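Supplementary Methods, section 5.1.

A reviewer requested that the exact input to the structure prediction be made available. We therefore reproduce it here, unchanged from the version used in the analyses.
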Amino acid sequence: MAKTHIFPVTIYYEDTDITGLVYHPNYFKYCERARSDFFGPEKLRQTQNEDKISVAVYRAEIVFKKGATLGDSLEIHSQAEVHKEYRVGCHHRIIHAMTKVLLVEATVELVCIFQDKLTRIPRWMIEKIEEMNNE
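The structure derived from this sequence is encoded token-by-token as follows.
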């Protein structure tokens, strides 16, 4: 079974809407932070700045089960797999840290773009995913 990358998030007032629950688009931000943490911001920046390859969301799907509120501590549990040489799939489970209740599930497919065209996933990203899945 693939190893899970866990990224902590604390809910602040700015994360919530008038209902007191996390404003729904913010869950995508939390998933993005978890992916950036997994791949490494420095490596992503190097890929973008030096290699001129951008990582872009191709498809995203989210299922809301229960809302988080101000002060909650969450864990973003992420797993990734290479779907094709041009696509990476990431599955995120957002879990309340104390109660372990599943709040949100999100699936995000990533692609890489070079000079406005689809390009292969960089080798270092594939190796990072394989390393995680083989632990």
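Residues 58 and 110 are 5 Å apart (CA to CA). These observations are discussed further in the main text.
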